[in-house]
Write a sequence for this structure.
């Protein structure tokens, strides 16, 4: 029995939602935190370790610098969060750094922001699922050899969940997100209680794992290493901008709910980050290459490896997998903004059956899966690529907000104004908001330079090359759409510009059968000069065509049969030459119609057996602007009957749908 693809789609994706139901698919703050904040929250599973992995080359004694560096990262996070709260309130339609830069800095900075964020969202998926695989293999080392397959399976599952709709994905992702936060916070509370000696708990275990320095650095080299470590910790900032891109996914009032969610996200993420860093440095934990993660070591030593440990490990793996959902939410949304402005294919702004940007989701899944395969699901190898794009977008966003505050400051009290994308009004606090955004832009700009310089040879050069290439692609697509719009414009249109349609229809045929007879019948309806053209490569073919043509005098009456005798096997060249000759000599400056018979098999897989010559001919003729190509399909039935004389013919009885 044939498989009905639409039925499979309904089972996997669910029934279509009407557009009017869009408001009911919006997210409340609880679901939205799980959907948009899973990336910055989950980054706590590896941000501390990213700092330690750099400075460990100076020996285990140098790990005491981890906490000061982490506090610097936390301060930067708070600055960025404040800036994005302002972005959310001023740009309630979403778009984040791309919209802010477009509105205040111009086209090129906005495309830089768009390219940087798209790169970051792709890496969010690849890094998150790879980090999830590492958390899983830390608990189950036997699964390490299957890490790539596990990562690809995770991408497939997350893609499927997101194709089912935003609200449904929020419900599914809420449990792992809050379970991870609860488990790690409980571990931190127990660890702090043991550290200060509360409730009679045993003291916090410490380890004197002496790791010798592999190099001795002083002066600039030492500062350079600390900058590299700080840059590694900046992975904690990834995903912060996600809420500002997806403001329209929130329930009304959208901007206020999004701003509150941003505050909650910052408080949770930084509490986890500082807590993990403080305890792991006080316990003198050491990062292990391709071994147990810092979070796993800390949790096991604090909780004794019981139920809390496995709780944290299980939900660490889950949230790291599901942190990819931040990319799945924002890559399609940002792509839709770019597509709306003509910088990406228009189809990327279309929403699917479940009111999600299905095309963007599928594009993201394919690209991120390729990256996972290339890097063999090693998130540590991908981290140098990770924070570069997001830091560039932070810089552009905050610079744009600083410019916006200057516009706000030019208004008088009670006065309102309008930029290209938002309405503004005078704000008494515009000066310190501008100052904070300016400081934030300078700070993140410096961090971007640090990341680029310190991570360049480790792989950041890939992102540094990819972003300009994306900007070039955006501009190329935009120029194409501008050219199409100019060509189709009716502003200076005159009816005399339209070409006349020639009263001729050419029907290429390979034989005389039901399909070609139907095409000829149709051609007679649109033209009085109908020509059936056949290329005969042998005299036998020539004779057979004439003989079969003569069998249907009524159907072929008034139609000219043109048989082109050709001594080579390439039958397309004489057909195209004939069309060009008729077009140029008989109907110059007129539209000539070509009617092509086409088989439509019952089984789509059988298409490869038919119409290949017709497909090539169709592509060749469509390169000519004064040729119209019309397909006349003939459907091959599912059942063939045989009469009493042994003659087979298509069944005239309707067949039930399988």
């Amino acid at each position: 029995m044939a498989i009905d693809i639409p039925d499979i789609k309904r089972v996997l994706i669910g029934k279509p939602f009407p557009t009017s139901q869009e408001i009911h698919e919006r997210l409340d703050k609880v679901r939205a935190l799980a959907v948009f904040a899973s990336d910055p929250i989950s980054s706590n599973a590896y941000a501390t370790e990213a700092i330690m992995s750099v400075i460990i080359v100076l020996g285990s004694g140098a790990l005491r610098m981890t906490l000061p560096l982490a506090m610097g990262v936390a301060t930067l996070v708070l600055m960025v969060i404040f800036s994005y709260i302002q972005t959310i309130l001023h740009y309630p339609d979403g778009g984040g750094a791309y919209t802010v830069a477009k509105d205040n800095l111009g086209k090129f900075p906005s495309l830089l922001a768009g390219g940087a964020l798209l790169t970051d969202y792709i890496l969010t998926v690849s890094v998150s699922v790879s980090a999830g695989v590492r958390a899983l293999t830390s608990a189950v080392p036997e699964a390490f050899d299957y890490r790539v397959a596990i990562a690809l399976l995770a991408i497939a599952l997350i893609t499927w969940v997101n194709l089912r709709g935003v609200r449904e994905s929020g419900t599914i992702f809420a449990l792992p997100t809050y379970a991870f936060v609860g488990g790690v916070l409980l571990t931190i509370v127990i660890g702090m209680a043991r550290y200060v000696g509360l409730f009679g708990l045993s003291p916090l275990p410490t380890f004197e794992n002496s790791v010798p320095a592999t190099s001795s650095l002083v002066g600039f080299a030492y500062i350079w290493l600390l900058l590299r470590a700080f840059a590694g910790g900046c992975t904690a900032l990834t995903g912060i901008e996600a809420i500002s891109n997806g403001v329209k996914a929130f329930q009304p009032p959208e901007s206020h709910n999004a701003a509150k969610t941003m505050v909650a996200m910052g408080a949770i993420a930084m509490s986890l980050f500082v807590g993990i860093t403080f305890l792991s440095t006080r316990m003198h934990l050491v990062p292990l290459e391709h071994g147990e993660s810092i979070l796993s070591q800390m949790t096991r030593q604090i909780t004794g490896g019981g139920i809390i440990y496995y709780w944290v490990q299980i939900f660490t793996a889950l949230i790291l997998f599901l942190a990819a959902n931040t990319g799945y939410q924002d890559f399609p949304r940002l792509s839709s903004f770019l597509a709306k402005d003509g910088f990406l294919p228009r189809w990327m702004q279309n929403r699917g059956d479940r009111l999600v940007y299905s095309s963007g989701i599928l594009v993201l899944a394919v690209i991120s899966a390729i990256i996972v395969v290339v890097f063999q699901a090693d998130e540590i190898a991908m981290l140098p690529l990770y924070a570069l794009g997001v830091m560039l977008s932070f810089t552009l966003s905050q610079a744009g907000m600083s410019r916006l505050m200057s516009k706000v400051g030019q208004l008088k009290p009670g006065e309102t104004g309008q930029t290209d994308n938002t309405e503004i009004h005078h704000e008494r606090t515009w000066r310190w908001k501008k100052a904070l955004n300016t400081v934030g832009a300078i700070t993140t700009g410096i961090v971007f330079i640090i990341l680029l310089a310190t991570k360049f040879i480790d792989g950041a050069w890939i992102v540094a090359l990819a972003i300009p290439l994306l900007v070039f692609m955006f501009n190329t697509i935009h120029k194409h759409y501008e050219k199409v719009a100019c060509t189709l414009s009716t502003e200076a249109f005159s009816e005399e510009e339209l070409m006349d349609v020639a009263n001729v229809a050419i029907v290429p045929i390979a034989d005389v059968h039901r399909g070609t007879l139907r095409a000829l019948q149709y051609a007679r309806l649109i033209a009085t000069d109908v020509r059936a053209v056949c290329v005969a490569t042998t005299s036998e073919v020539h004779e057979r065509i004439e003989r079969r043509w003569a069998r249907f005098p009524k159907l072929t009456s008034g139609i000219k049969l043109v048989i082109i005798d050709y001594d080579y096997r390439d039958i397309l060249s004489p057909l195209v030459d004939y069309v060009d000759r008729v077009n140029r000599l008989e109907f110059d400056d007129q539209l000539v119609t070509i009617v092509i018979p086409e088989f439509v098999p019952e089984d789509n897989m059988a298409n490869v057996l038919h119409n290949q010559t017709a497909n090539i001919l169709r592509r060749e003729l469509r390169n000519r602007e004064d040729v119209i190509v019309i397909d006349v399909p003939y459907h091959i039935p599912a059942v063939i009957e045989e009469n009493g004389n042994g003659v087979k013919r298509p069944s005239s009885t309707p067949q039930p749908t399988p």
